[in-house]
Amino acid sequence: MRKVDPEKHAARRQAILDAAKACFAKKGFHQTSTAEICAAVGMSPGNLFHYFPNKQAIIGAIVDQEGEETAAFFRDLGARDDLYGALVEFMDVVLDLAGDVDFASLALEISAEAGREPTIAARVGRNDRELRAALEQLLTDAGARGQVDPTLDIADTATWIAALVDGVFNRVAVDPDFKPENHHKTMRTLLGRYLRPQA
Amino acid sequence: MRKVDPEKHAARRQAILDAAKACFAKKGFHQTSTAEICAAVGMSPGNLFHYFPNKQAIIGAIVDQEGEETAAFFRDLGARDDLYGALVEFMDVVLDLAGDVDFASLALEISAEAGREPTIAARVGRNDRELRAALEQLLTDAGARGQVDPTLDIADTATWIAALVDGVFNRVAVDPDFKPENHHKTMRTLLGRYLRPQA
Q1: Has residue B1 got a pLDDT over 80?
Q2: A177 and A141 within one domain
Q3: For residue B47, which of B58, B60, B38 has the smallest C-alpha distance?
Q4: Are A102 and A25 spatial neighbours (Cβ–Cβ below 8 Å)?
Q5: How close B90 comes to chain A (CA, Å)?
Q6: Do B189 and A128 touch (CB under 8 A)?
Q7: Same domain, A147 and A122
Q8: What are the residues whose beta carbons fall under 8 Å from the beta carbon of B19, sequence distance 6 or more?
Q9: Residues A89 and A171 placed together within one structural domain of the fold
Q10: B7 CA to chain A: closest CA distance, Å?
Q11: Residue A108: how many CB atoms within 10 A of its CB?
Q12: What is the ipTM for the molecules in this complex?
C-alpha cells in the first residue's frame, strides 16, 4: 500500500482549489467541468477523485477556506493597539477584494450556488456568523478602549457593517461605474462618523 | 375585429404580473411554469400569450414596474420640506420591503435571473442607475437646505446608500437572525451620523 505524504497531499489539494477558483471565476461554477479543473491542475480525473468526490465538494472546500482565512485575518487585527484602525483596514481589504475581478466573480458564484444548494448555504451562513462574531469582538474591545463609541449596540452595528460588506460586492455586480478602489475615502468618512466616540 | 378596451387590458396585464410575482416568490422563477401563472390568474395559456410572449417577458415587466414605482416614490419624497427625513423614510420602506418575505424572495429571484440573462441585467442596471440618480438629487437638494452635510461627495454618498440597500436585502438571504423590523433605530443612527451637517 502506497503511503500518503501529508505535505504533498495538502499541496496538491491546494493546487486543485486554486485551479478551481480560477475556472469558477472565469466561466461560472455550472459551466466549469471537472475535466477542465483537471486540465488546469495537470491531474487525471481519477486522481482528482482522491481529493474531492465532486465539484460540489470543491466549492464547499473553497467556502471553508475563505472562512478560515477571514478568521486568521481577524486574529491578527484583534492584536492591534488601534482597533478602530484595524476595522478600517478590514474594510480596505473588502474594497481590494471587491476590486479583484476574479475574487468578486467567485463571490457571486458562491452566492448563487448557496441559493441552490443547502449544504453550500449552510457553509456561507457559518462564515457569515463567524464574521459577525469577529466584528462584535473587535467593536467590543474597541469600545472598551474608547476607540469606538461604547454606547453603540454591538450586535446591530456588526450587522450593519456586514451589510456594507455585502453591499460593496453587490455594487460590483449591479453598477458598472462602481470602482471599489476609488471608495476608500468615503468608506473612512462613513465609518468614522458612525463609529467614533461622539463629541 | 374585436376592439381592445385599454383599461381592461391594463387590469388583466396587472393581474398577470401580480399572480406571477406571488408564484416566483413562492417557488422561484425557474420552478414556476406559465401554466401555473395561468391557473393563478384564471386565464388560458393562449390568452396569456396576448399579454406576454414568455416568462422572461413577465419578469422583465416586473422589473420595469418596480423601477416606475421607485421613481414615483422619489417624486413624492422630493416634494417634502424635510429631505433628510424623506431619505430616512425611504430606508424605512427598504427595511419594510426586506421584512416582507415575498418581496425579499422575489428580489433574490430577480438578482439571480439578472446574473443569467443580459436583458434582465440591463433592466436591473437601469433601475439601479435611476435609484442612484434619485438619491443624488435628494442629497443635493437636502445639502442646499442644510439638512445634510453639503461637503459630502454626492455621487459617492448615493453609492454607499445604494450599497446599504443591497446589503439589507442580502442580510435577509444570508443571516436567519436578521429581522429588518428591529433595525430602524440603528439605521437612523448610522444615517444621521453619516449624513447630517457636522458640528
Answers
A1: no
A2: yes
A3: B38
A4: yes
A5: 17
A6: no
A7: yes
A8: B37, B40, B41
A9: yes
A10: 35
A11: 20
A12: 0.92
- B83 & B178 share domain: yes
pLDDT > 80? residue B100:
yes
CA distance B94 to chain A (A): 13
Number of domains forming the structure of chain B:
2
Q: Hey, what amino acid is at A29? A: F
- Name the residue among B111, B128, B190 with its Cβ closest to that of A160: B190
Domain shared by B35 and B62, yes or no: no
A2 pLDDT tier (thresholds 50, 70, 90): low
**pLDDT tens-digit readout, A78-137:** 999 999 999 999 999 999 999 999 999 999 889 888 988 999 999 999 999 999 999 999
Backbone angles phi, psi at A27, to 5 degrees: -110, -10
CATH number at B129 reads 1.10.357.10
Same domain, A121 and A148: yes
pTM: 0.93
Q: Are residues A84 and A168 in the same domain?
A: yes
Taking only the tens place, the pLDDT of each residue in B32-53 is 999 999 999 999 999 999 999 9
> Do A181 and A136 lie in a common domain?
yes
Chain A residue at shortest CA distance from B118:
A174
Do A193 and B193 make contact, defined as CB atoms within 8 angstroms? yes
Q: CB distance B163–A167 less than 8 Å?
A: yes
Q: In chain B, which residues have their Cβ closer than 8 Å to the Cβ of A160?
A: 164, 167, 183, 186-187, 190
Q: Is the CB of residue A95 less than 8 Å from the CB of residue A187?
A: yes
CB contact under 8 Å between B178 and A159, yes or no, is yes
User: Which of B124, B175, B190 is closest, CB to CB, to A174?
Assistant: B124
Contacts of A173 in chain B (CB under 8 A): 111, 115
Domain enclosing residue B32, as ranges: 1-53
Read off the C-alpha cell for A168.
Answer: 460593496
Distance, in Å, from the CA atom of A50 to the CA atom of A67, rounded to the nearest integer, reads 23
